[in-house]
Amino acid sequence: MKIRIAFQTGCLLLAAGLIFSLNAQNQGMTQLATDGNAPFQLSGDWKAAGSVTLHPDKASFVKTTPSTDKNTSLILGKTGAKAAVALGVGDIVLKMEFMLAPGTNAALTLPGGYAIRLNDSWKSPRLDANVSAGIGALAPLQNAAKAPGLWQSITVQFKRAGQTTAAQIEKLVLNGVTVQENAFLSAPPTTETALSLEVVSGMAAFRNVFYQLLNDTRPVALRKLSYQLYKAGNDKPKELLAENLLKKDTTSILTREWGMGNNSYYLLYDGQLDVAQEADYTFQLAYMSNAALEIDGKTVLPYQWNDFLQNYVPVTVHLTKGLHPFRLHHHKFTWRRPGLGMFVATQGVRQYPLHVTSSLPEPTPIPTIEVTANGKAELVRSFIQREGEKSKRTHCLSVGTPEGIHYSLDLNRGSILQFWKGGFANVTEMWYERGEPQILHPMGSAILTAGQTDFAVLNDLNAAWPDSSVDLSFKGYRLNPAGIPTLTYHTSNGDITDEIAPENGGLTRTITGNLPNTYIRLVAGKSISLLEKGLYEIDGQRYYVRIDPKNKPVVRTVKGQQELLLPLTGSLHYSLIW
């Protein structure tokens, strides 16, 4: 096993970049319709459509449905097509989705003339500036491109060039993976004020374009600030007693420095928020130990624990113009590093701090322990915590391959839990400090499965698929020369062998067994659509499943979920492509 130790330092965009996280659900953003009408000015070969289907292998394959709604429509362009909308040269947060045909090269150009490449690079063996999300001579941190014919997402936060500063990509996320961060652009800005989408060669579709222009105004200020400092232990005090009051005073700044250094204390701020314009404001607290926030006499952030200065606790509050009383609680524990910060942002306003810089020091670097594949596959046993589940999956095996295509298995259920591309695994939580969580995290953006067993006996094809099988037990695995495991499971009806290996840009699974009434569930999702015989699109062109065209799968809907099943009679193969 090869382990690389890197460090997460203070590159957290404390004052600027946090606006990025606030727009995860398009909060405060404006949608640009892509229905072939304004605001985009179209030139070249464009077509508006309600939906589009492209093929992962066939460059000329295309199917569309008519456009009916400007907010859900898309534009499909061919070589030379360009769509432009004038937004002005300014700071911007932009989100959109795009789809490429095989071999396509496209570009997203930001105001100022900075082009981000959107290329069909999902199989590119080299990581250079020509892969998707490359900018000028800047290569992305990893190749996060998906296969042709699948919808891909891109989110970018851009800061314009100043008189003495270069333009900056503060953050760029491709398909859920941060691939550019704090990247300064060496090229001087042009006079171009438009945002543009261009098909350089091939065929590409664009939809769900959202943006927000940012400025550096500060519509919220602190007034009439005072504080009270109390002696406290590490237990939450039932009440703040006068006998424990150490100091109280007025102040012009919000800082943790009125506290007692590394000792325990309870710091209570009272003051007013002077709001220049009515809006929804998002406040984020940065602290260690516990804090709470009250505005207009109401608790908007309850007293709660926060582990690290790198974690931020947000709340959005609607405030009218004028003065609003607020109270900020900070209960600092002995063994936690002192630090207290409060940021604020609203639509069109870049997030800024209400505290002084010294109140929130640079976070202590944390080692990121990454397992990297080196010539052979790497296998790591760990716990895995799935989103929405209260309990950890305790019997898990993750396999990382030199091809950069990885997956995790639940050995108790005989199921694929997740699969991803890029870097293999962050195992920091298995080793750092006490290593108590024992959780492995993918280094790329993982596609999650339903998480249930992949093998089940179905005497009735209308029966619901079980979560697990008491008849299935994991017996072990053997490794091939490349380090890929072939797993063996035992049932009362016989044994099952299971091998999952990288192939042709995806994963190919080979399952062998001959068990009566036993089925393999290849995939479960909201939708399963047949693209051509043997090739299926999953969950609205999120990924593909390819099977032998000679197979006769069962496609069924149970409790609102679609499933693709094959009987386990001999040896069967299928591929996951994304």
Outline the structure in words.
By secondary structure, the chain is mostly beta strands. It has 1 helix and 44 strands. The strands form 8 sheets. Strands 35, 36, 37, 38, 39, 40, 41, 42, 43 and 44 form a 10-stranded antiparallel sheet that branches. Strand 28 (378-384) and strand 29 (393-400) form a beta hairpin. The longest helix is centred in the first third of the chain and has 4 residues, at 19-22. The radius of gyration is 27 Å and the shape is globular. The two termini are 27 Å apart.
In short:
This protein is mainly β and about 575 residues long. The chain has one helix and 44 strands.
Q: Strand content of the residues, in percent?
A: over 45%
Shape, principal axes of CA atoms: globular
Kindly state the mean pLDDT as a whole number?
A: 92
Report the biggest beta sheet as strand number plus sense, adding barrel if it closes: 10 strands, antiparallel
Give the proportion of residues in helices.
under 10%
